[in-house]
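INFO  loader      accepted 1 record
INFO  loader      residues=493
INFO  predictor   begin
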Amino acid sequence: MPGVQVQCPHCRSVLESAAPLAAGTQVRCRNCKGAFAVYPAPAAVPVAPPAAAPAPRKADGRALALAALALGGLLCLGVGTGVAVYCLRGGRGGTPAKGPGGGNGPADFGDARKLSDNWVTAAAPKPLGAPATKGLAWLAAHQQADGGWGSEDLGGPVFTFGPPGGEVLLTNKSSVADTSIAALALLRAGSTPHKGTHADQLRKAVEFVCGKVEAADTDSLWVTDQRGTLIQSKLGPHVDTFLALWFLAEVKGLDPQADARVTAAIDKVVSKMARNQDGTGSWEQTGAWAPVLGQAVAAKAVHRARQAGAAVPAAVLDNARKHARKGFDPNLGTFDLAGSANVPLYAVAGSIGALQDSVNTDLFLQKRVLTLGAAEGKLQAAQFTATSKTHEAAVRAALDRIKDPTFLKGFGKNGGEEFLSYVNIGEALAAQGGPEWQRWDKTLQDLLSRVQNQDGSWSGRHCVSGRTFCTAAALLAIMADRSPVPPAATSPR
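INFO  predictor   done
INFO  writer      dumping tokens
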């Protein structure tokens, strides 16, 4: 029967598909697990049938849905999102591969772990090593009585940018930003507010963050009464809002007793972000030193909320998707340095982080797109395709840059911005899998273990220097293999 052959660029194995593969389709190699996109669409070649016909298998719902789309003239929905990957066979073993999924769409989830009905891990979770265990213990020990975390700056009180006339001295008061990212690290390690080593800390964190959201107004972008904190001055004035939504989206559904409250808080923050997003897809970043990283957190927040089932307006996602594409020029292979403090690491991390989260949401929305009418479906598919192509090119460009040790140093010394950049890069590469992800993971584990403090924390040497933020971000980078991705387009598990 007619089919196609593609060659894995990582291990050179030849993969065969019995069905056509649209340009941009994401494929994961059965042999080396590396991910790649098919460009251009391969020509059809004869593919021999199996030597022995096995017993009939239950039809794959994805293949049937795509066949229906083809008949309806909507085959373009598969381009660039991975939904058109059918039964791939490894060139060496000839064993039928599982369906695509995870990260940007190609992952074989045989080694991933189910996190919830919405998510599985981006890669096979590795055991927590000594650096992660020590860091988690430090975080748990530094939660404050109100359930939140303060900055824990090594210098004691934190000097922050305040109103004209001088700086304002802010004590180590619990903040939404520090609390949200600290709780995310505990969540990533495997605990939930309902069970696990850090269940108590997570329950208190949910109480703290929800309480702040509930006390906030309904119209502005603020969820805190703190102004001019160090984190806000570096990542953007509303980074607390973005981090709160990111945390709440991931904790949603993990504690039945608090779920109604968490859902209400998510809906409130989503409404605030929808109300305050500008026409470019961005949110106010006035005065921020490296707003590209704050924008990446904002994009991650709305995308994770949508993947968690929140009613994020389509316009918000579309605008965020368009903004993410502007961060990289696929024709020139360059990243936009605007908002990066002229630090290439921040620009690359902000770009591929936002693009990866966009692609993840596109995967999550595939089933919904299948229900749309022809015209609307094609428009939505065009968005998905454009984002996927830009994402693929941006990841390739990023892989070239991360080979340079100078690039990885960012500003020249460690700060919260560097650690957050490692989170974005790690999550994108974990979703890709393959040798590139494995090399990155090893490099980062070695790098972060060398700069960890004796007490298990990490601290910054410039800008965002507080130990809470730096420790939590370093832990999220170490545990990028555990980052959540939607199981869309996978074979039923």
